[in-house]
Design goal:
293 residues; alpha/beta; Alpha/beta knot; Trp Operon Repressor, Chain A; 2 domains; 5-stranded parallel sheet; two-stranded antiparallel ribbon; 32% helix; elongated
């Protein structure tokens, strides 16, 4: 462990023991002291754990290495019908989740955790942000619906906005599962081979090199000879060269950040804004709203 590495609590990874006035269900997952916990505010608690309950994340969840808690937004709705939204101020299509309703739901979550609203206008979710979240005690996630949430709750609670891509989903539940998956897999003991984390995309700021396995030849396509040579230094160099090549070709923003030791998310945001502006100009041109220049 380096001097800069955060110290792991002595109780981390141990099963918690506490008294109970009633017998516990023997099928309940064990509770691990200090387990990373995701608290999800959603209109659809039944959407969880979803794919998070499968494979390695599901196994880690059943073993208590991380925990998942949902807060049903509808339970905090207003009136007989438990309304959670209302029409946008100033007019417009769609509905907006009310600040008072969301505030009541957030009050059901533990204080002191990062609070993230999954939003297409948020900063891009990066491997670095997922790693930072994994090093903490957990996170509270807000799954939006309709036209979003009242800006006042975001400002009042200092809520961080994160996006998983430049597209729009019908709700934030899928985005929340993406963030949780990206984070949970970085928690110690969740992955069987922790060494694989050091070799995958974004771990070094670059995309991952191509992967191959048996058979050595398939439909006339052979595995690169260097990978079968047993020459570890040559293999390592080939993988580094391929990672650099793919990153330069497919993600020039990451490549520039790699060379400059900068922030690829900021570069991508600027690039995305430029692309969106160009797309809007082309759309107006196609509709005849903008003269040819």
């Amino acid at each position: 462990m380096t001097d800069d590495a955060p110290a792991t609590p002595r109780s981390h990874g141990r099963v918690a023991i506490r008294a109970s006035v009633r017998p516990r269900d023997l099928m309940e997952p064990p509770e691990v002291a200090g387990a990373w916990t995701a608290h999800v505010v959603t209109l659809f608690p039944e959407a969880f754990p979803g794919v998070l309950g499968l494979s390695l994340t599901g196994k880690a969840l059943s073993e208590g290495l991380w925990r998942l808690e949902t807060v049903a937004l509808r339970e905090h709705g207003i009136g007989r019908h438990r309304n959670v939204d209302d029409t946008p101020a100033g007019g417009g299509a769609g509905m907006v989740i009310r600040a008072d309703v969301l505030a009541a739901a957030l009050d059901r979550t533990p204080p002191g955790l990062p609070v993230v609203y999954l939003s297409p206008r948020g900063a891009p979710l990066t491997q670095a942000r997922a790693r930072a979240l994994a090093e903490g005690p957990g996170v509270t996630l807000i799954c939006g619906r309709f036209e979003g949430v009242d800006q006042r709750i975001l400002d009042a609670r200092g809520i961080e906005e994160l996006s998983i891509g430049d597209y729009v989903l019908t709700g934030g539940e899928l985005a929340a599962q993406v963030l949780i998956d990206a984070t949970v897999r970085l928690i110690p003991r969740v992955l069987g081979n922790q060494a694989s984390l050091a070799e995958e995309s974004f771990s070094s700021g670059l995309l991952e090199h191509p992967q191959y396995t048996k058979p050595a030849e398939w439909e006339g396509r052979r595995i690169p000879e260097v990978l079968l040579s047993g020459h570890h230094a040559a293999i390592s160099q080939w993988r580094a060269d391929e990672a650099a090549r793919l990153t330069k070709e497919r993600r020039p923003d990451l490549w520039r950040a790699h060379l400059d030791d900068g922030d690829p998310a900021k570069d991508r945001q600027l690039s995305g804004a430029s692309h969106q502006s160009r797309d809007r100009r082309e759309q107006r041109k196609d509709q005849g709203d903008e003269p040819d220049r």
